[in-house]
Amino acid sequence: MFRGFYTVGSGMIAQQRRTEMLANNMANANTSGFKAEQSSIRSFPEMFMSSLNATRIPTEKGLHMTGLLPVGELSTGVYMQETMPLFVQGSLRETGLTTDVALLEGNLPVDEETGTPGAVFFRLESDNGNEVYTKNGNFTLDPQGYLTNPMGYYVLDTNGNRIQLQNDDFRITADGVVMEGEGAVATLGVSFAAQPATLLKQGNGLFASSTGNLPEAQGVAGVGYSFQQGYLEGSNVDSAKTMTDMLAAYRAFEANQKILQAYDRSMEKAVNEIGRVN
Description:
Layout: H1 2-27, E1 37-43, E2 47-56, E3 64-74, E4 78-85, E5 92-94, E6 101-105, E7 119-125, E8 131-134, E9 140-141, E10 147-148, E11 154-155, E12 171-172, E13 177-180, E14 183-187, E15 190-193, E16 200-203, E17 206-208, E18 225-229, E19 231-233, H2 239-274
Antiparallel strand pairs: 1-4, 2-3, 5-19, 6-18, 7-8, 7-11, 7-15, 8-17, 9-10, 12-13, 13-14, 16-17
Helix pairs in contact: 1-2
């Protein structure tokens, strides 16, 4: 009986966490460059139950031999193992601002270990000097003319340097070359992640690498990408599917809740009626 409480409780916790993840996806459905999270729910290791059984041996002394009688397998509950961003490109949204840039993915190498394609990101310099990565090209110019993201992180070029401009009257070619008049100022830096699922999510659409800086995409064979000025990459959240998944998670939570109430009523009956001493 008590094992049933634990099993049902683990199911409720897993569905609650899944609902929270889906609610965060829905809240960021209109956030530029946001990557929807996916969850994987796994079951705890199952136990094989057996009961002790005494078998009488037909001898003069009437000996008994103790053995195990198989009962069957018992599930010990489920848990949400991990959440992973879905690195599928979102749709483009036109803004008309020269400081907005969309990074379009082309042909990307497929990782042999995972069987999934890599991903490309804008290179940024955070406030502590480390490199972080984003798909949100909603940039602006700070008072010194440096190209930054909304958090004030500097946009880096292919050499890892900050990009300084005179004003917002500039253009960006499809190859990422930043032009002021007829002169080239810099080339937007792009990093390539062969296994984007291993990146660490930092919040605000930012990712970091746990193994040092990602390589510059220009130096990786087979990586294709382009830029489109005046556009932003939207979120890749599928609102209709997310709402359906939220309803399914809610129904699963509700079903576990009803089972928990049934267990509670059974325990109450066992304590107040069956265990009553007349």
